[in-house]
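User: quick one, sequence for these tokens?
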């Protein structure tokens, strides 16, 4: 027969952790915020230097008259036909868009040209 030891076995000692889960998550979030802030600062610095101009679609279009077309006015002529007056700062154009075609007409002069061209476009297109 086996004899039992006289001394009772000691309980297993577990590792004690100093902090809670919230402390470790806070540290991770702080490091993440610092990394994202650094990346944002680097991107803004590169944009200021002009290194990102070929990847940014609207680079330099912030100033008025710096290129690019903008719609000045639109007029629905019929359920399937729309007339747009667009300009780029120097020139103005009329675009008549329908389901079957699109027409581009340059406007000459600033005043008086738009109403005559509108009347011609409305007379030509009709109600598709």
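Assistant:
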């Amino acid at each position: 027969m086996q004899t039992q030891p006289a001394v009772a076995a000691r309980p297993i000692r577990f590792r004690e952790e100093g902090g809670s889960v919230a402390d470790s998550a806070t540290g991770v979030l702080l490091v993440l915020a610092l990394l994202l802030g650094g990346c944002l600062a680097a991107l803004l610095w590169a944009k200021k230097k002009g290194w990102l101009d070929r990847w940014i679609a609207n680079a330099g279009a912030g100033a008025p008259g710096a290129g690019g077309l903008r719609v000045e006015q639109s007029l629905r002529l019929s359920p399937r036909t729309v007339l747009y007056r667009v300009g780029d700062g120097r020139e103005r154009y009329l675009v008549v868009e329908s389901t079957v075609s699109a027409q581009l007409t340059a406007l000459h002069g600033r005043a008086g040209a738009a109403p005559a061209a509108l009347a011609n476009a409305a007379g030509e297109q009709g109600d598709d």
